[in-house]
Design goal:
Rossmann fold; two-stranded parallel sheet; 12 helices; 34% helix; binds nicotinamide-adenine-dinucleotide
């Protein structure tokens, strides 16, 4: 059967998420060209080829886009770093993908954006898809840059783009925060598929989050994409709460969409801060008070109502 596209280019193909979406993209095209700055994955798919390239160098990106219909841009450093370390991989790479794509007639870019483009927005504000950019880091600033690049190339050059504002994409939810922010690998594949196959997208931003009871955002304004995530982090709530240290609900890392990225100093790793939060265990238990003994759900124990989907919407 004829495939939807002749050629799709995937950057960052050897990364955690790139590896998860290769087969989804390969199913949609005659030829998937996977690109990364590191060596090729061990097993290429039958219709997949690989190019080792630095996306921060325009001359290396230009030939890759020849004959491509869609570019899926996932290459970047996925963490906060000093600005000059992100300039090439996170800022220039995006410009190069859009510009090389434009010169070769690519019709759509699908971009791995991030919640950190709006990481300083407070959960309680009920962030909508058109909330102003509010990056929490230089990393988030690079995501804002690429989103605006997408808007510029759509309005001035008619090149479509879909910006997936991914929250926390892991095999299983890693910590209590992920009860709100988790995106499962299955839901990521579904999201990428919808972004690639939607008939027209213009410039679109969509939250990359699973169907979590506590998701702090909703995708009503991107409903036309037909993204219907199925997984729900709530299934892990009990075990995650059992392992978690108590959280201070007035901490900006709790209040802002960006989590610990909202409080780390610029240039310092946010992933390390999330890891520290994930590994923090509850202090040894003190003798229970009568209040402790009252039966409470994990949610009731730890989260103010505005941090739950129910509290946000109803
Ligand atoms: N994992 C998440 O939860 C999450 C959340 C939000 C956004 N994202 C975004 O999704 C994308 C993929 O994230 P990931 O978790 O798979 O990260 P990753 O680090 O596992 O993968 C990134 C890949 O990009 C490649 N790369 C880096 N610089 C490059 C360059 N100059 N040229 C070519 N390739 C280069 C790396 O070699 C790596 O294989 C990133 O853009 C990240 O910012 C991820």
């Amino acid at each position: 059967m004829a495939k939807l596209y002749k050629k799709i280019v995937l950057t960052g193909a050897c990364g955690t998420l790139g590896m998860e979406i290769r087969s989804t993209l390969a199913d949609l095209c005659d030829h998937l060209l996977s690109v990364d700055i590191v060596d090729a994955p061990a097993d290429l798919l039958p219709n997949e080829s690989f190019a080792k390239a630095d996306c921060a160098v325009l001359d290396e990106v230009l030939p890759l886009m020849e004959g491509a219909n869609v570019a899926v841009h996932f290459a970047s450093i996925p963490d906060e770093r000093p600005f000059d370390e992100l300039l090439g991989p996170n800022f220039l790479s995006s410009y190069n993908v859009w510009e090389a794509g434009h010169r070769h007639g690519v019709q759509r870019v699908i971009y791995a954006s991030s919640v950190h483009a709006v990481g300083m927005v407070e959960n309680a504000a009920g962030a909508d898809l058109d909330v102003d950019h509010a990056p929490d880091t230089f990393y988030g600033l690079a995501k804002c840059f690429a989103e605006d690049l997408g808007k510029l190339y759509w309005t001035k050059r008619g090149m479509e783009s879909v910006h997936l504002r991914i929250f926390s994409c892991t095999k299983v939810p890693q910590n209590v925060r992920a009860l709100r922010t988790w995106l499962s690998f299955d839901d990521l594949r579904h999201l990428v598929d919808r972004a690639a196959t939607a008939t027209t997208t213009g410039f679109t931003v969509v939250w990359g989050v699973s169907n979590n009871d506590r998701a702090p955002v909703n995708n009503a304004k991107a409903a036309f994409l037909g993204f219907h995530p199925k997984d729900n982090a709530e299934n892990w709530a009990e075990s995650l709460y059992a392992a978690a240290a108590p959280a201070d609900p007035s901490d900006r890392a709790q209040l802002c969409l960006g989590g610990p990225f909202a409080t780390i100093p610029l240039g310092e790793s946010g992933v390390a801060a999330i890891k520290a939060m994930t590994e923090a265990k509850a202090a040894p238990e003190a003798a229970p008070t009568p209040e402790d003994a009252a039966p409470q759900t994990p949610a009731a124990q730890k989260l103010p109502s505005f941090l739950t989907k129910k509290g946000m919407n109803g």
